[in-house]
Amino acid sequence: MKVFVTVEESGVAKGIRRIVAVTGEEALKAQLLHRSLAAEIEKLHKLLLPSQQKPEQQQLLESELKRLSKELDAAVIGVYEKHQLRQVFDGIKRQHVEADKAAKALVAKQISEQVHSAIEQNPDQEAFVFRFDAAGKALAQMATYIKGLKNKAAYFISVDESAGRVAHQCVVGKPLVARGLKANEWAEAVSAVVGGKKGGKEESAQGSGSEIARADEAVRVAKDFVKSHLK
């Protein structure tokens, strides 16, 4: 067992460095803390299940990464040991970030294909309603796509169970606005179901609510709204 542990090393002036070390009981505490942190960081590997990772696992991993990062920064342990743990921790964090980006890119690709396919297969249909799971930024991307079509309307409803939120966004082409389908009124009808706030104008609107259990009802309301307002 070490009789002392170097817990800090810093520069004081040119050519002069300050080293802080602890001995006895404090050194033992530093060693035990190092082992505890090493064990916790090792557990993070078990949460890295990229392609099939469940939302709750992702949320837990993100929470643990934030917590352990703070604990590691504040930990009074050996300088070299802290450096080693930080390297392992940063490696896990990089893997998580890369896996998260890949997963979101895949979701965005699948959503894009679904929307494009629906419109291509139903060229005469003027308004569409889509429901997705945790679509994220893909909602805005698809809204931009629909807006570029000029003469179509679409409502996108995204349910994120891990966050307990329902994000929704709609776009209506000017020709359809003139015929009675207005985005802000459309969003108001959906928001009345999923709760939360909404905002927008006649050609585009968006909102976010917490009634995730009523998402399917919101889809029905959005479709019924089209039938009763698009003349």
UniProtKB/TrEMBL annotation:
Molecular functions per Gene Ontology: alanine-tRNA ligase activity; aminoacyl-tRNA deacylase activity; ATP binding; tRNA binding
Protein name stated in the entry: Alanine--tRNA ligase
GO biological process, one term: alanyl-tRNA aminoacylation
Family statement: Belongs to the class-II aminoacyl-tRNA synthetase family.
Domain annotation Alanine--tRNA ligase helical bundle: ranges: 58-98
Protein's UniProt keywords contain Transport: no
Keyword RNA-binding: yes
Example of a GO cellular component annotation carried by this entry: mitochondrion
Domain DHHA1 intervals: 130-227
EC id: 6.1.1.7
InterPro entries, A to Z: Ala-tRNA_ligase (IPR050058), ALA1_helical (IPR059090), DHHA1_dom (IPR003156)
Originating species: Coemansia guatemalensis
Keywords in alphabetical order: Aminoacyl-tRNA synthetase, ATP-binding, Ligase, Nucleotide-binding, Protein biosynthesis, RNA-binding, tRNA-binding
Broad enzyme group: ligase
